[in-house]
Amino acid sequence: MRIGDILTYAYGGVAGYRLRSLLMLFAMAVGVASVVVLTGLGEGARRYVTGEFASLGTHLLIVLPGRNETTGGAPPLLGETPRDLTLDDALALKRSAAIRRVAPVTVGSAPVSYQQREREVITIGTTAEFLHVRRLKILSGRFLPETDPRRAAPVCVLGGKLKRELFGNRAAVGQWVRVGDRRFRVIGVLASEGRAIGLDLEDMVVVPVASAQALFDTPALFRVLVEARSQSLIENARQQILAIVRARHEGEDDITVITQDAVIGTFNKIFTALTMTVGGIAAISLAVAGILIMNVMLVAVSQRTAEIGVIKALGATRRTIITLFLTEAGVMAAAGAAIGLALGYAAGAATAQIYPVLSITAPVWAAVSALLLAIGLGVVFGVLPARRAAALDPIAALARR
Amino acid sequence: MRFQDGLNLATGAVRSSGLRSGLTALGIAVGIAAVVLLTSIGAGVHRYVLNEFTQFGTNLIAIVPGKTETFGISTAAVSNVRPLSLDDAAALERVDGVIATVPVLQGNAEVEGAGRSRRSMVLGVGSEMPRVWSMRVATGRFLPRDDERSPRGYVVLGSKVRKELFGDRNPLGQRLRVGGDRYRIVGVMESKGQFLGFDLDDAVYVPASKALELFNRESLMEIDLLYRAGFSVDRVKESTRRLMLSRHGSEDFTIITQQQMLDVLGSVLDVLTFAVAALGGISLFVGGVGILTIMTIAVSERTAEIGLLRAIGATRGQVLRLFLYESLLLAAAGGVAGLVLGFGLALLLGFAVPALPIHPSTEYVLLAEGLAVAIGLAAGIVPARNAATLQPLEALRTE
């Protein structure tokens, strides 16, 4: 029998029982579509999170005070150390050839007021380089001036939301606001940043680092953000940061340096594992659809006994019969999977229209493996019915008519 | 026709085509097993996380500096212009219903003792800490109740620090340097393990005011209150708020009750469990399509039988019910098999991966079985209606 004949026969088997075939296609399509949509969700989440971290800046290293002996554990994200990470430490890092920019950061919470309105917000003390390291944009006015970081200039830059809360639609630049017990002149407003991890950049005020240290009465820095000159120099920069701070801290290793790449790599791994798990769970439904195909094929074999008898009487071998029925199961599974793929991708595209932030596009490996798994399961579950059909005795089969 | 007869007929129909019925039920069984297994893991994680939190006791209220609505790390804990002081902690002990308070300050410092050194977490706390956090001292005693402004330089070790620095030797009475200051060891805590990434065994406990000096800070990071069991949380919270307001002049602090935290966590975890259950539900849905397919085939195969039944006087309702029973039977049998399979797998997984918390939850199991029956009903209704609306004469003619 030629391939064309086999396919035509299989198509006839599928088309002959329309309702039943449609239901089977539907079952398979649901399974494949759910795999596609769920892995798409996982992939979208992975891209979103790694994108967030990537948008923090490029070639970024984060220096935290404190160090835990156990490596691999959580870094000391919050906490104090006897020896502070100081502004001078941060400025000393600029000596390294591998480092392009250094932005010291102090963080605290302070009430910001303008006339009658007061709002408790995150107060960030930093330098002019923060703008470049974090890739922020200025909406109006300007960012902190590039003067000596040790000078506590009474100027501040407001986040978009804070500006709206305090000033409404009036111009903020040039006005004086009170932060804690000090007065600052607003010299700029940050542009709204669609997304940011950790700190809400919309609802904050940025002041020169020396002013923040005076405000909170502490010489300590919360973080130092460092931008390496290039991708290949990140590890180099890390070593030099450790060496410079060690020299300044009397030989003691009391800081932790996190590279942005390491963080992104960890998140990549976590989300890929999550995507595979979710996809695997959804793939269980493919197995259920496979069982259904087997069941219906078994019914088909018993209903089409006479037909099989005729084919056998015409000289078809066992192999031919098995090929015929396996092809039918495979065609059914493949058609269902194709519909499922289309549905899944359509659902992803529709979601992308509604929520543009989250792109639901299943990774190619997931779509391909769902398709192959569906066809494979269809064929595997088709084996039993096909063998049963092939084992029929032609005379007995014909006698049933 | 009596109910019993209907059931017998349906059972007969299911059993006469054994393989087919078995496969149909298997489809449902796989779906139910997936739901049971996944919800078991979900519920296990739920319990695990809640246990992590309640191991410190449930009658706790935390006061943190800064006004924040979200719970998580507030930047005010790092620096703020309105400090939370030791005096606040002392004053809060007078609140009605409060048994004890603990000022909390956390940092990281070099700890040196017995010729070895190690970087560890340093917790500045009050003498009531073991009581408030339900922790126990293994040997020696905890920090004594000194004047909180000038406490003696005593330190209590976490079990891991003790092991790393002193090995099997007795650390009690030995000297210890924490970030350059000298302390004398008075006790060792029992092992408590990790909590949300903080290893409480890899820590040393010093008096809060010493820690404030060590880290050169004015403000505590947190004050924890333990209130009497049976006291209303809201009342304690309200009087705490009033006292703090009168001390600070404005609401520059946030009060978080353990109950609030548990509620938020609980609802997040419930949503998660529900989500994984829904994932398993996809398979269940496909299984339902399987029942629909097989029942459709059954009705078309047994047209003649239906004709006969109608001819000898069975009403439409009776035929309808007959086929509904059949699909319900398939779904219910599949459901039971799935429950057994799911529980078996959950137990097996529990043995294989003891770290994975697994807790089969009865409500989800009942829900799953109910869902299976509902699916049987929903999938059976269209074929059963088709069977019931057949014209007896037409049906008989197909014989």
Q: Could you please describe the fold and organization of this structure?
A:
The complex is a heterodimer of chains A (401) and B (399). Chain A is of the alpha+beta class and 401 residues long. Helix content of chain A is 54%, strand content 17%. Chain A is built from twelve helices and ten strands. Chain A has a six-stranded mixed barrel. In chain A, helix 1 packs across helix 10, helix 2 runs antiparallel to helix 8 and helix 2 packs across helix 10. The radius of gyration of chain A is 33 Å and the shape is elongated. The model of chain A has no long low-confidence stretch (mean pLDDT 84). Chain B is an alpha+beta fold and 399 residues long. In chain B, 54% of the residues lie in helices and 18% in strands. Chain B has twelve helices and twelve strands. Chain B has a six-stranded mixed β-barrel. In chain B, strands 8-9 form a two-stranded antiparallel sheet. In chain B, strand 6 and strand 7 form a beta hairpin. The interface between A and B is large, with 64 and 62 residues.
Helix-strand blueprint:
The complex is a heterodimer of chains A (about 400) and B (about 400).
Chain A: H1 3-16, H2 18-55, E1 60-65, H3 87-92, E2 99-114, E3 117-126, H4 130-133, E4 138-141, E5 155-158, H5 160-167, E6 176-179, E7 182-190, E8 204-208, H6 209-216, E9 223-228, H7 234-248, E10 255-259, H8 260-303, H9 305-313, H10 318-354, H11 364-390, H12 394-399
Parallel strand pairs in A: 3-8, 5-7
Antiparallel strand pairs in A: 1-9, 1-10, 2-3, 2-6, 2-9, 4-7, 5-8, 6-7
Chain B: H1 3-16, H2 18-54, E1 60-65, H3 86-92, E2 98-113, E3 116-125, H4 129-132, E4 137-140, E5 154-157, H5 159-166, E6 175-178, E7 181-189, E8 194-195, E9 198-199, E10 203-207, H6 208-215, E11 222-227, H7 233-248, E12 253-257, H8 258-301, H9 303-311, H10 316-352, H11 362-388, H12 392-397
